[in-house]
Amino acid sequence: MDPTARLKLEIDLRDARRQEIEARIEAHNLTVRRAAGGNQRRNLSISAPRPIPLDLLAIGDSWFEYPLNDDGIITGVNQAIVGETGTQLQSLGSPPPTILSYALHGLATTAMLSYERQESMLRALTDPNTTQWHNGTTADAILVSAGGDDIVGDQFAIYLDYHGAGLNKARFQALLASVQASYLDLFALRDTAAAELKIDPKRIPIFGHCYDYAIPNGRAAGWPVTLSGPWLKPSLDFCGYDYTEGLKIVQEALDGFRSTLLDLASDRITLPGRTTNNFILVETVGTLTRDIVRPNGWANELHPYSEGFTALAIRFLVALRAQFPGRI
Hints:
The chain has 328 residues and is α/β, with parallel strands linked by helices. It is built from 9 helices and 5 strands; from the N terminus they run αβαβααβααβααβα. β1, α2 and β2 (98-101) form a beta-alpha-beta unit.
């Protein structure tokens, strides 16, 4: 593709993603307004008011926004953890949560937290229109799925030594430092929103996850027709590793990523002047099996089948219920 055509494609894609987010914001606003009207009518006829549905802001990658079915065919239906249909988080909750999702597949944390996207999220979190959120103020919590696309993909080769040494610990640690910086920036964005609203940042906890042990088998999304990927095997092949060696390298990489998030969740590393990040790590490691067998195996190198996404959504459901009893 020539440079002019590539630039036009990138601009068109960026515009389409911006329009998609704007449409989600309007749909979320409409859902909240309709729910508010319905609750008022119901509460007039019953003595005990119903609990306010949990209202969440979600940002993330393909584990939150995955428009393929189990056969790798584009359906336009999001079957991921915060998928709007099927048996994912919305359908599992009682009452079902409302989610304003900024998630888009394929985003690294640096793209996820570009100034334009942060500006849009800050506007949503501090919207003076009281019908934007069920509680009339802001999101009850922020869900985040981030960091995987910083590591995997064609750039995965950067973090591998050639022929035998495996993961290059120094280079990979530098990458994890970048991911950590992005999470700390998200915490700062949340704190900025809370300051504008004059509320305690602890009122907006952030929930993240640590993925699971992927399998570098070369299977792409859209198998047997490649739509995206593979994200692991090509780099491992190039650097001279077989499948068994690749399994160990991927596990080591994920363990390092998980350790980075644990440092944030346990407040071993915080923003300057803060004693807590108010960050809850949802333990997703061990949810999926390291094979391609349903229900909880891998549909491709990075994504489970729909049943696996349901199992992951249940992990989030348990964590949210512990924080917000009776609201989901």
